[in-house]
Design goal:
Layout: E1 2-3, E2 9-15, E3 18-25, H1 31-46, E4 55-59, H2 65-82, E5 85-89, H3 91-99, E6 103-112, E7 115-123, E8 127-137, H4 138-146, E9 151-155, E10 169-170, E11 186-188, H5 202-212
Length: 213
C-alpha cells in the first residue's frame, strides 16, 4: 500500500485488512529516493516476501504532480512484475480514513495559488462522497460546508494555509487505514491507469495558452 501524493509518505503491508507493518513520514525528502528503501524495509522487518503480496493499493491523487506520479508508477510496476491486482484510492479519502473522524468530514491540502484540494465525505461504518473532490478556492470550500451540518475540517497543521482556517483537526495520511472502507477502493487496469491530478500542470496550461494565442 503506497501514498506518496504529497509531502507525507505512507507505505504499509496489510493482511486481511489489518496492518502488519507501516512507515509514515512527514519530512521533506524526495519520495523517489526513499520509497523503495521503505518498501524493502517493510518486507524485511515483517518477514513477508514480494511473492506473498496479492494486491497493490496506491493513492491516485490529487496532490503533487511529482509525488502522485512516483507512487502510481511504482505501484503499476510492482503490480505488473508480481502479476497481482492493482487498486487505487483518492488521496483525500486516505486522509479522511486516517483521521478516525466520523460524520461529515472535509479533508483538504494545499493546492497553491490560494486554492486547495478538498472533498466532503460522510463517514460512518461506510464511506460516502457528499461533495466531489476538486481543486477549489477556500471560498468555495466554505460555501460547500454551509450546505451541511457539523462538518469536521481535516488538514495538515504544518501547511501555511491552515493559519487562516477555522477550527480543524490535524490529519496526515496513513494508507493502512483505507481497507476498512472497501467501497473507496477502485480496481485499475495496470496499463491504462493514470494519476488523478484534478488540475492541469503549468506546462499544459502554457501550451494551451500558446495554442490559443
Amino acid at each position: 500500500m503506497i501514498d506518496t501524493s504529497n509531502r507525507p509518505l505512507s507505505v504499509a503491508i496489510n493482511e486481511d485488512g489489518r496492518m502488519v507493518a507501516e512507515i509514515n513520514t512527514t519530512v521533506r525528502k524526495t519520495h523517489s529516493a526513499t520509497i523503495m528503501v521503505h518498501i524493502n524495509h517493510l518486507l524485511e522487518s515483517s518477514g513477508y516476501r514480494r511473492n506473498d503480496i496479492d494486491r497493490i493499493v496506491v493513492a491516485r491523487g490529487p496532490g503533487s504532480y511529482t509525488g502522485v506520479r512516483i507512487g502510481v508508477t511504482i505501484a503499476k510496476t510492482l503490480a505488473q512484475a508480481l502479476g497481482v491486482e492493482l487498486y487505487s484510492v483518492s488521496s483525500l479519502a486516505v486522509i479522511a480514513a486516517s483521521s478516525g473522524a466520523k460524520g461529515n468530514v472535509l479533508p483538504m491540502f494545499d493546492g497553491r495559488r490560494g486554492n486547495v484540494y478538498s472533498g466532503l465525505y460522510h463517514v460512518s461504518e461506510h464511506f460516502e462522497e457528499v461533495e466531489a473532490a476538486g481543486y477549489k478556492s477556500l471560498k468555495t470550500v466554505y460555501e460547500e460546508m454551509e450546505k451541511h451540518e457539523e462538518v469536521c475540517l481535516l488538514a495538515d497543521g504544518s501547511e501555511a494555509f491552515t493559519e487562516n482556517l477555522p477550527k480543524y483537526i490535524h490529519a496526515v495520511p496513513r494508507i493502512t487505514t483505507v481497507e476498512q472502507y472497501p467501497e473507496i477502493l477502485r480496481r485499475e487496469n495496470i496499463h491504462e491507469m493514470v494519476p488523478e491530478y484534478l488540475k492541469i500542470s503549468e506546462a499544459e496550461k502554457n501550451w494551451i495558452n500558446q495554442q490559443q494565442s
